[in-house]
User: What shape does this take?
Amino acid sequence: MIFTDQDLESWVRNQKDHLVKMLLEMVAIPSENVPPNGNELPMQIYLEKVLKELDFDTELYALSSVDGLRTNQAFWGDRNYTDRPNLYASKMGNGEGRSLLFAVHADVVPGITGKTAEDPFQPVIIGGRLYGRGSNDMKGGIAAVLLAFKYLQEIGIHLLGDLSFESVVDEEMGGANGTLAGRIRGNRADAAIVPEPTNLRVCASHMGGAAWRICVRGKGGMGFGGEELRNPVYGMAHLIRAIESYQKDMQIRKCFVTPTGESQSPAVVLSMIQGGGFEPGMADGIPETCMIEIWVECLPGESFSALESEFIGVIRTLITQPELAGLEVDWELITRFIPGSHAETPLTNILLQQAEEEWGMPVGTYTAPFACDAFMFNCHSDTPAVILGPVGENAHASDEFVDIESLIKLTKIYITAIVEWCGVESGR
Assistant: This one.
């Protein structure tokens, strides 16, 4: 090793203020994704400036410049990519080492006012936690990557393999077209690291899933004329109970145990319910519709047809029952299907070794309990992507935060993994 563990520890901890400063600046950039639009450009400009200062060659490119993107079978949705460029940065190696790509996304979900962070884009630090939208997903991980790059520059480490960085737009909200664009234009490496928040767990795979909107329609009103009314809220209640039973059954059938003895299984998330309203004359009347939105996960390798057949089969069975007589039920897919995927690469073992040293105990590989754009690498390119990011909570919710100490540990893991994977010149 070209540096001692003690030297590395000292350097990274001495850079804590710089790490926090970068993260504060990034969280303060409201790079929200609000389909079909997004505001990632200021974040991309910030990242390009930092990377240029770290001696990377950089390129901002419009998604419209990527031939074949919108006609590719993996492209999804009707998005507006005006002033929403991807960023690609690279530093060529000096030999025949393996290449490594850090794959991040510039966008965040819309900010939500919370008790701790009243303005989600005015970050605050409390008790070792940095609060603010995007702090955990995924600007904390980005800050750790940039600090790792700074170490390589300051210490004068010359890598044998190429080192690259990709910041894409439209990863959130069922997007991933930005990541697809990078694969089509040929931004490849022997392996990639995706800094999504994993609580410092090395995830060589991740869950997949899809979201549906289900609507129940009935006969609303007051019934003054003697008409027969049918309340869709009651019908939806039966559907929700069936979905809850499906969730419990799936968590038993599809449960698996990690190498460290923890149980994991796909989730079913009822994220929104809406029925009726308070318009004049309706406060004491029966509504005409009730609607839910629901996210249904699947295991790595499970197909959309299998997931849809199983979940929608539950809905189809229930609508034939007497409890839903007289009600109309329909459903629509409201996100792309994001397949769960798995990465086959020796990089996993290198990351595991470094993570275990930071934990002080064997940690094993995990399946990330969320869907993400790693599938674009694992399913649509020859670059396997492993997911590894910081400790934090409340991603996509109010009072999102990242644990600052975990960013210190993560930076050290990234540095040692880069050096071991890419290799270094003799004497460097």
Summary: The two ends are 10 Å apart (CA to CA).
